[in-house]
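REVIEWER CHECKLIST
Item 1: Sequence provided? yes
Item 2: Single chain? yes
Item 3: Sequence as submitted:
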Amino acid sequence: MSDKKVNATKQSLHSSEPDSLTELAWPQLLPNSVTNYDEYKFKLDMQTLRNEKGLALPLQMCMERFAVSQTGRLPFLRSSNLMDDVLTGRCNEFNFSDYLTRPAFEQQVRSPHIVMEEFLGLQL
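Item 4: Structure as written out by the authors:
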């Protein structure tokens, strides 16, 4: 009898636990589909509107959404996509990010005077 232990992954036997390389090789498909759902739904709605109503209405909606995305804000204020949510109809929905956001991902609110001095290059 041999006292050697056989490693299942080295001897081409299937192990029950995947190694880290296998986990990296197979992408997580569900999180990608969840994050891209709103954009995919918007594009599908625009395509349906183009086929039914013509080009004017989808073009106007996309121009409004582009104008909203170009609206600036001061650097010390928290960012909010309220205008985009209103235009796309998501303002009445409650999703995961509304009530379960982790504090690690939240923006830090700093003093407006310090931020504007840094932004304008007026550091003393």
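Item 5: Key structural point noted by reviewer: The mean pLDDT is 75.
Item 6: Recommendation: ____
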